[in-house]
Amino acid sequence: MAEAVDPKIWLKLAGQEFVYALCDLKDVELTFFAPACFHFQQAAEKYLKAYILVRGKTFRKIHNLVELVKICSDIDPAFKNLLSEAAVLNPFYTDTRYPVHWPIEFSRHDAEKASQAAQKIGDFVKNKIGGKI
């Protein structure tokens, strides 16, 4: 069994989350936008955690993407450019899966914004990691 500190595993899982979420957007008949938003959030989270591990750092159990971007920006200040994407994705960790104080409907527009944000984070991380793993 691979250890949880293996960044290759985190990158693989991030890619799977991203592709899985894209499947919901490609089918115009489906309206599973909340799960798609959640999986885009998860992809971004795993990409950021992979970067932290590649750089030999650790992270506590956390799902807050803004905080993860800040951890990454302590390593490389260029990550600050991802704060707005992290802020877009952050609410999708909880709001897409649990009832909140008021009902939230997620739209195709929300899922497309989540897709773009996760894509930008994923591309940025993969570019930064390059051939380091």
Automatic annotation (TrEMBL):
Matching SUPFAM superfamilies: Nucleotidyltransferase substrate binding subunit/domain
Residue ranges annotated for the HEPN domain, each copy included: 14-121
Superkingdom of origin: Bacteria
The name this protein goes by in its record: HEPN domain-containing protein
